[in-house]
UniProtKB/TrEMBL annotation:
Gene that encodes it: queG
Gene3D superfamilies linked: 3.30.70.20
Keywords: 4Fe-4S, Cobalamin, Cobalt, Cytoplasm, Iron, Iron-sulfur, Metal-binding, Oxidoreductase, Queuosine biosynthesis, tRNA processing
Residue numbers binding [4Fe-4S] cluster 1: 186, 189, 192, 246
Source species of the chain: Flavivirga eckloniae
Family to which the UniProt record says this protein belongs: Belongs to the QueG family.
Record's protein name: Epoxyqueuosine reductase
Length: 308
């Protein structure tokens, strides 16, 4: 086995040991196909108030501008599909990814461990870990490295696994064996497009971020536009509709990451509990959760929007 194959094997074996669902690797180079798509999406203002999406256009498309001398993008998937969901069917809903500990911290720790092993076993390898925290097109890299295909709802989908997972990367200055993309298996299915409560999927593979429930409930700091009243399907933080209806997610299996287990109270809160939530309860239930992004006032705004 040559050193490239040996190093590739080491990284994939270690990724598995750390609990990642899968690991794929691609050559660090300019994302030629994505450039015009990203430009068009921004020009149509589909990022709404997410102005940060306009920044670092070159870095989003070229990993060598993020990590000097980088040769490989190591993409990793981590399952977050829960074994149980919220019990009260009439209660405001939280996206499944936010049930447990904030994924940024959980995954960052795993990525640091992976990079440490690479450096210990291989030698001087420079790189950076990315979890949704820098201008990296996660889904494009994961698709490029054969971990799945980008579905019509613009999320990555993997056969036999579905799409309820986080995507993260290590960008390193080490040459490795590269994986190849898989084919698209969406076929003629339009389940996600048909089910989107706000018609945010404007055409197959294009999501108008400024119409997405996740955008309104997490990213938007101002008042939610009244024209969307009654269209939120009870989502108060994020939205899983396009993934819930995707046929590939019938293969989803519960994660085995204890840190992603929800606070015991979360799943049993009733509609009334949510409508009367206090700041103390918010702090207790979401102490280390991604839901803290909205802050207490933001979550209250979202709940009120559903109720009025």
């Amino acid at each position: 086995m040559n050193s490239k194959a040996k190093h590739t094997n080491l990284i994939k074996t270690e990724a598995k040991r750390l609990g990642f669902l899968s690991c794929g690797i691609s050559k660090a180079q300019f994302l030629e196909e994505e450039a015009p798509r990203l430009e068009s999406w921004l020009n149509k203002n589909m990022h709404g108030e997410m102005r940060y999406m306009e920044n670092h256009f070159d870095k989003r498309l070229d990993p060598t501008k993020l990590v000097e001398g980088s040769k490989s993008v190591v993409s990793l998937l981590l399952n977050y599909y829960p074994s149980e969901i919220q019990q009260d069917k009439t209660a405001p809903k939280i996206s499944k990814y936010a049930y447990g500990r904030d994924y940024h911290f959980v995954i960052k720790d795993k990525l640091k461990s992976l990079l440490n092993v690479i450096q210990e076993e291989i030698g001087e390898v420079n790189g950076r870990a990315f979890v949704d925290s820098a201008p990296v097109l996660d889904k494009a890299w994961a698709a490029k490295s054969g971990l799945g295909w980008i579905g019509k709802h613009s999320n990555l989908i993997t056969q036999q696994v579905g799409s309820f997972y986080f995507i993260a990367e290590l960008i390193i200055d080490l040459e490795l064996d590269y994986d190849t993309p898989v084919t698209d298996h969406c076929g003629t299915c339009t389940a996600c497009i048909d089910a989107c409560p706000t018609q945010a999927i404007t055409e197959p593979y294009v999501v108008d971020g400024s119409k997405c429930i996740s955008y309104f409930t997490i990213e938007l700091k101002e008042n939610i536009p009244t024209e969307f009243k009654g269209q939120f399907d009870d989502w108060m933080f994020g939205c899983d509709v396009c993934q819930d209806v995707c046929p590939w997610n019938r293969f989803s299996k519960p994660h085995n990451e204890p840190l992603f287990n929800p606070h015991p109270e979360l799943l049993f809160m009733t509609k009334k509990d949510w409508e009367e939530i206090t700041e103390d309860t918010f702090k207790k239930v979401f102490q280390k959760s991604a839901v803290k992004r909205t802050k207490f006032a933001g979550l209250q705004r979202n709940i009120k929007f559903l109720k009025d």
